[in-house]
Amino acid sequence: MISEHWLEEIKKKLLERNSKELILATGKTPSGHIHVGILREILICDSFRRILEREEKEPKVFLFLDSLDAAKRFPEYIKPEFRKKHLGKPFSFIPCPFEESECESYAHHFGNELISTFKDFGIKNEIIWAHELYKTNEMQEKIKIALKNNDKIKSILKKFILPTLDDVKKEQFNETQKNWMPVMVICEKCDKIQFRGKDDSIKPNRILKYDNKKDIVSYECQACGHKADISIYSGRLKLNWRIDWPAKWSIYKTTCEPAGKDHCVKGGSYDTGLEICKEIFGYMGPLKVAYEWLRLGDRDMSTSKGIVFTPKKYLELADPEIFRMLILRTNPLKHISLRIEEIPQYYDYYDKMENIYYNLEHAETEEEKDIINYMYPLIKVKSISKEKPRQIPFKVLSFFSQVQNILSLETLYEKALSILGYRDSESISFEEFKFLLKRTKNWIDEIKMIIENMNDDKQKRLLTQKITIFTIQDKIDRTIIDNLDEKQIKGISLVKNFFIENEYLDEEKIQNTIFTISKDQLNINPKTLFEALYLLILGKKFGPRLGSFLLLLDKDWLINRLTIEV
RNA sequence: GGGCUAUUGGCGCAGGCAGGUAGCGCAGCAGGCUCUUAACCUGACGGUCGGGGGUUCGAAUCCCUCAUAGCCCGCCA
């Protein structure tokens, strides 16, 4: 193999470590609706899982949900009074913000929303909730180790962070380091772990003193002022992020954890984490795999700021395979712009890839063929069939979903089966078909919204044309009829007669008839008659190819529509 | 102050690690299908690969440098 997929390169490094167990990890704070960006690291791990399982290596994959992280801000869809009340508490200590649901906590609501999509995406992993992890002896031992090694930890942080700061921040950093301890306490009185000052500064309930004989720490709550001593085994202590991460690594012996570029930056938490893991917890730490953000169009997403496009939402618009494909075909260090309006093009690429995999189409190069053969099994959610799975083309679905107001689902289903070349419903059930149609409808609606919000008129028009958005009018606008000329009206009536007189029709015949009527009987440019027909049915001058379109419509409905009173 | 990524025809991108006449998709253009296309088929057009310098017989590719853009970097997470 000349060229290799980036996953293979990382895999080699993984196997060089010669670990008995291969532990893959990912993590996320459930601070709100979790957006699709997190799937990038989850899918990288899931792909490794598949690769390693194929090689009989028995990997384990964990997803750490940082439910004990403090709410430092809330997304805008959370009510103000709720925000005010719970700001500064760990997410697992905050109730579910939505009254109608009965979740255990804020963290569970959003965490479970993410988890519920894994099955559809073909993701397998084990979930570790931070608030439960911190109740375990293992984690509490790590807290103890961290407290004992406070000075050492501080010098590591200093060594890594200081060189990356400018002078002002250097001073700030040195200042906070003076009384710094690696552990925070969740106040027993108000459940808060930090306080957000009016100047937007964050004041954590950092512990003030550690009694290493009794294993008791003292703290003062920055939010309510409560002062107390508390045992390190109380379950109310939490390590600071930069120590929390390596502590988890050392407990689970994590072999590899992908992380967003924010963590992977020089002097960031990954670098300090690895050093702390090695020096304080005595474990070499995971292989660092950095990845760039996944963007929505040209915007970054942010869970806490409420710019979200969730995996659940994605699944309402398109196939999970398409998403896996986007992630796998792109080097993790490059950013991906997920563009809803380009989903048809994604499907085109997927189809091409599938054709190449099944040897129905030639790849341009050997490398392309190799890469596709490698990726395809990692992309599929269901098992791979011997022959290329038949699918209703996206364009057809897009068309079908827009004529639902005049055509029954049954008619469309029959039509779909005939396009697929099936005489029965073996390959695609009616239920599945309904689901596909609904999903495409959702996508069309989404596109309509995107078009509406576009500022550039030219872009707007291009997109409208590219995607062929149309609506069949329930009633004809009277002004349309009034604006038709004599020949157009005559033409419409001739087309109507043609439909009445002919029992069996095909699209070619319809198409040709319209031309013949225009040229021979009316002596007008065919375009004029086409426009009249489109106006009558769609309310605008253009639409899908008329022959196949009219054939699809219910004949009686069509004849009725073509009967116009002048 | 530090870092990552990007800069290749109108748009979106591949190629870059292993240097050897610049590619793909979409749009645009022309023609074809007895035939409006925002259907399909065919064809042609279109780029001095962000600027500059260096290494080389030869650079989109390697090295240096500059520029522009996006994002990230104390505490907290």
Explain how this protein is built.
The chain starts with 5 loop residues before the first helix and ends with a helix. It has helices at residues 6-16, 38-54, 80-86, 106-115, 118-121, 130-133, 137-148, 150-161, 167-177, 241-252, 261-264, 269-279, 311-315, 320-329, 343-357, 366-379, 394-400, 409-420, 430-452, 457-467, 478-482, 486-501, 507-522, 526-538, 546-552, 555-562; strands at 23-28, 60-65, 126-129, 183-185, 194-196, 202-204, 209-211, 216-220, 227-231, 237-239, 256-260, 287-291, 294-296, 336-338. The chain is mainly alpha-helical. The protein has four domains: 6-142 and 241-296, HUPs (Rossmann fold, 3-Layer(aba) Sandwich); 183-239; 394-467, no CATH class; 478-562, Arc Repressor Mutant, subunit A (Orthogonal Bundle). Helix 7 crosses helix 10, helix 22 packs antiparallel against helix 26 (555-562) and helix 23 (507-522) packs across helix 25 (546-552). It contains 26 helices and 14 strands. Strands 1-2-3 form a three-stranded parallel sheet. A three-stranded antiparallel sheet has the order 7-8-9, with no helix packed on it. A two-stranded antiparallel ribbon has the order 4-10. It is elongated, with a radius of gyration of 31 Å. The protein binds one RNA strand of 77 nucleotides through helix 9, strand 6, helix 10, helix 11 and helix 15.
Briefly, what is this?
49% of the residues lie in helices and 10% in strands. It has 26 helices and 14 strands.
- β-strand percent reads 5-15%
Query: Total strand count, please?
Result: 14
CATH architecture descriptor name of the largest domain: 3-Layer(aba) Sandwich
Task: Quote the distance from N terminus to C terminus.
Answer: 72 Å
Low-pLDDT parts are: none
The outline comes out as: elongated
